[in-house]
Specification:
The protein is mainly α. It has helices at residues 2-23, 32-38, 40-77, 83-136, 160-167; strands at 27-30, 141-144, 157-158. The longest helix is centred in the middle third of the chain and has 54 residues, at 83-136.
């Protein structure tokens, strides 16, 4: 009887430890920043952002040149003008300066919005591919191993190669 109790206890312990091992979650990791940077769509988005940035830079430079030319002209003519005219010119120059600052602010906001609009479908595509690969391989959790994301040790399965294959590059 004592041996039977020991045998049952041993069987329960073996069964319990096996079920605990099976209950452990499968965890993988991927550096999402690296994945997105490697995607062809991202490179196209970057090129579009650079093109838009250059357009804004050219417009800003043109506004700056116009401002400088106006200031030089008004400075050269200031002694020949009346106090009232010089005052109006100073207000005009101040308005131009304010206009340049407003343009810079608007351009920066538009650049941020454009970047968000371009990156959103890319990140969603990457996330969908990560989820598809993780589920296909039986992973329950996928951690982002991008530096600064909180993953201290990334010694498990790295899904980068599999996700790139899923995305076709």
């Amino acid at each position: 009887m004592k041996h039977l109790k020991n045998l049952v206890l041993a069987a329960l312990l073996l069964f319990g430890s096996t079920s605990i091992m099976n209950a452990q979650s499968k965890v993988a990791h991927i550096n999402t920043q690296e994945l997105i940077a490697a995607m062809p769509d991202y490179k196209a988005a970057q090129a579009e952002m650079e093109k838009l940035g250059k357009t804004y830079d050219v417009q800003l430079q043109d506004m700056g040149k116009e401002y400088e030319n106006k200031v030089k002209q008004y400075d050269a003519e200031a002694s020949a003008q009346t106090q009232e005219t010089n005052q109006k010119r100073m207000q005009e120059v101040a308005a131009m300066e304010q206009s340049i600052r407003q343009f810079q602010s608007t351009a920066q906001q538009e650049m941020q919005k454009k970047e968000f609009d371009l990156l959103k479908p890319i990140t969603e595509k990457a996330k969908a591919a990560i989820i598809k690969v993780a589920k296909a391989q039986g992973f329950q959790y996928v951690l982002d191993s991008t530096q600064g994301q909180g993953v201290i040790l990334a010694d498990g399965k790295d899904l980068m190669a599999d996700v790139k294959k899923e995305l076709g590059f």
